[in-house]
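---------- Forwarded message ----------

FYI, see the Ribosomal RNA-processing protein 12 record below. Original note from H. follows.
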Amino acid sequence: MSEGLETALSKIRPHTSSSLPHQKAPATLLHALEATFAEQDTQRVPTAYFAALLTTLDGTLQSARSSGPSLRDGDVLPAELYLLAIVTPHVPPAVIKSNLNTIISLTAPLFPTLVPHAPPLRSQLSFYEAVFRALDRPQLEVPGLRQSFESILHLALDPRPKVRKRAAELVNQVLSNPPPPSLRHPFAERVAAWLKETLGEIATGVPKFKGKNSDTEGLDSAIHLLSFLRPVLSQLPPSVLPSTTSSLLSLPRLGNPYLSQSAYSILSELLAIPIEDPTNNVRDRLPEVLDAVLSSRPPNSNTTLAPAWANLLGNAMSTYHEVDAEKTSAKVGEAWQALWNFLESTDPNIRKSAEKALALVGQCFTPTLIQAAVKESAKGERKSVIGKIISQTTKALESLAFARSIPDVLAVISSLLSNLRYRNGPRGTPTAAEKLLLPLIVKIAELRVQRTFEFKEAADATLSRAMGVLGPEVMLRSLPLNLDSVDRQAGREPRAFLLPMLSQPHPTPLSHFVSYFVPLTERMFDLQQTADIEGRQSEAKVWSVLVDQIWAGLYGYCYGGTDLKTALTPEFSQLLSQLLYSQPDLRPAVLKALRVLVESNDVIASGDPARIAKLPEVVRADSISQEAAQSNLVFLRTQVESWLAVLFNIFSSAGRNGQGMVGDVIAAWVAIADAEEVTKAYQKLIVLLRENVNKAPPAFGPKETESITAMTLDILIILLPHLSITDATALFEACLSSDLLESKDNGVQKRGYKILTKLVSVGKVDIDAADVLQRLEQTVDGLAPAAKKDRMSLLSSLVTLIPSSNLHLLPSIIPEAVLGTKEPSEKARNAAFDLIVAMGHKMSAGGTVKRDLVDGMDDDNIGETQANIEEYMTMVAGGLAGATPHMISATITAISRLVFEFKDSIPAQMHSEIFATLLVFLSSANREIVKSALGYVKLAIHTMPVDLLRPHLKQVVPALLSWSHDHKNHFKEKVRHIFERMLRRFGWEDIYTHAEQEEARKFLLNIKKRKERAKRKKNREADNEDAEDRPTAKAAGGDAFEDVLYGSESELDDSDDEGTTEQTSKRQGGTRGGAGLRVDDDDPMDLLSGAATHVTAANAKRRRKPGQDASRFKTDDDTGKMVIDESDEEAGGEEEDVAGAAYREAITSADGFTRGPNGKIKFNKDTKKRRHENMEEDVEMGDAEASSAAKGPKRKSAKTLGHEFKAKKAGGDVKKGGVDPYAYLPLSQAAKKKGRRERLGVAGKR
């Protein structure tokens, strides 16, 4: 029996004694069927349950032929349908096909009878879903089956939510799984015809229902129909989409907001469907769709309909643009104006939808529209479509009507920048965005620097987009940085906020950085040095940050530049080298620029669409030609040798944390280098390796020679993919030597094994696996623990190269791999498991094992045997006879991994033998062995078939129960979790009957009670709160074997503890679309212009601003420094906290109480200790009140020296006015002098 079916049936069996008839009837019927199986010695397989249920159903219908079937709770027919719905999905399709006539004759006539009864009707639907999915195309044409599907279609409009949802899910699942080789289900045509007919009736106003509530029922049916249509839309034939579109367009006329919103949303999804069928002409009707949408614009205040309408209009324009760009351009102005008015709405969702839709409309700008706008801009006119759009956008920044919409307007301007990236000429000519939008960008920058402008983040996003589209050269020409001293003296506003925007790809050539920013950074660096010398640290830090921001933007100039040959001069290259050597803070920026410089030209020169698609959008939209990129690569190859020399030096001095980035740059430059350059670099590195690998490391101090060796190996790993076959072979031999693999440096060993593994994987070296394994075996004595993971990876790669006739080599690897599963390092364990599995796959592939060549083989077993998984399991199981518990435990763990991996390949007989053998180790006295055995049992319970495990229950249950009360090593929790899984798979009776001792039975009863308690708690939570609001369980991650073996100990661990439930905070109500006008008495407001600088958000008063508390600080009049009064600070802590004291008293006093998570009150116990504490608090409070009444607020007495040694219960050694004895004092405290504050130096000295 499949595990899923057994799990489902195990949940039904316990309900034979239920007081609810609808639960008791299926359980009773199931027990009757299984009793019949036991009498007839029939296996419990899905086919047997299916046949028995059909026979029982036939008998029930025959007996009820005269009076009709009874469908009340507790009757047999609902129970039969319920069990059929559970069993049928697990029945083989061939069985369903052979019994199709019987199924139809028995169940199809029941549909009219079942309609009034929802529970059995849902069971019938689940049963038919499994039947439909099991049939082939010819069988789907059976008349009775098609009639049943017709009945199910009409149930998709049923007023009952559960029935309607189940019918819709059935149709969706059937259409989504067509019988092979069909790409579309045969029933799709019928569903399309029914949808067309029903939609037509609703759209034309033909009442589908008659009676008093016909209008309401018709409207509800329309809503249900649209809910049904959404998931099946992509499964319908294309020929029905045009008529569906027409019907959906007519639904908003009915006046229902929800219906209109659903229709618009479905139309948006319909237009987004990629359609290649020639019979589909939905895109030919896009003009009609656009006209209908534009003519049905909802009001700005309609928060339900407006977002869906805007989304539909944007998608329709985008789709129409793909079909006919020129015709779409004629609708751009009208669509833009219709959407633009939504930006005046008070609802943020409407404005956001309008913003996105306007971005889609902006994508419909054609070269004709753009050229017309550019041409008229030269004359100072704005009469074209794009000219009017820009004029309208510019006015919005000053309009009071758009005061709350400034961020949305700025986002629209960002989309305009992207959509006007058009150039009417080669790269270097101005873009349309530069000619049309530059004044608007300047205006945004002016708003950005105004003190009262609140939307600086939105303005920065727009300016950043302008920087990417226009480039720094154009931006800084109109918006100078004004960072020089001359600019500051002239009173010009600095624009340092533009510097972080340089860090992005843009079209400005590299020569601009060399000519503009390099001199600027040199001046800034001089200013920084001057400030440092004169002690102005804050100013020096400012200049340092500005320099960092400028160099961080260098990489944006390096994406396929047109002037690379003239910009990358020897002088500039020398400057970059000096920065790499002398400025560690600027090193990441320079390295990134060098990598981008090479990789971008390499990608563009390759012409590979897949690689080009990974470039940034700005680069792809305005890229250089493939020929220009190839010319740049030729130029860069001439500098490979010099740059590699620099990068190798930087790599050696960067440290472990910085070598990764340097290595990426080296890899990029090596990728474009010629073979001669790579060989030359390899020869230099191999000579350096040989010079340092044999040098004895110093006994004390830093191990410089080992660091050089490790660094050299790191660089060789980077060069490895580009080495020639000759160099790769020589490197393999060099790394296979004992000098590397037995080095005293762990890092050298690890890198040696990594290089060997990569060379084996690349396939450049002709490898004799037998010889390599023999040489590796000789180096095992000097193996460092840190290198075990890499050694396991190398062995895994070598296993795949072992010929099928030399599989006798595997037994020599098995012990090392098995012991590797017990390594402390998780990575080493995973590598060992991978090696064990790799050997298993190698043996499963077939071959010959020559036993006479296996070391230590007995003379009786000499000969050849066929390689298979059984033979391999026998090899691994030999470790069970190991001399140490560690080896036995590791072998059990290895066998568990193999059982998990090859559970379907291992014969059932061997599974049974392995389970019986490992079960013996549960009685071992060694906990390490028992822990591994418990892990295997847990794995077997999870993965192995129930029928295979059932005969072993008599032995496994007592063996597990013997550890059920052992808390050490979490054995009790492990055993509990195993039994929870066993109870779900085998049922309560099968497990409980094998528990003989009373203590063991109590343990099982406790598990049962915990499970029931957890179920009740879950039901209470489901009743109290919505399921969507509860936190979902954390998904298991990582390796599946690790999850099973080392997963959560018990899923009922939390059921005993009520715990504190997480309280969800209520959302605070507030004004929506919050924006207001700031009133400033000193600056009268002009309501006709400049409104953007007077807008304030609704929560601006609650927003904490930097320095807002400074006005409350006491400052020195002469110096302006803040003064902190120590007495005030201490006195501030003495304020009376009435609420806090009342809360503490309620929690801790004898009269207090606490409230549990379920609202129950629990009073505190009236203990002697609590009464004593209350008396002390009363006395202290009385004294405090008396003293406060006489003297006012009294300062808290300082803690005396040695207070930490005061006894908690007795009086202690600390006495009033002194300490006795003084020997209890720490020397550091005794040495302190009162009234004197001492400062510590850097070295910790006074």
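H. also flagged this: The longest helix spans residues 998-1024.
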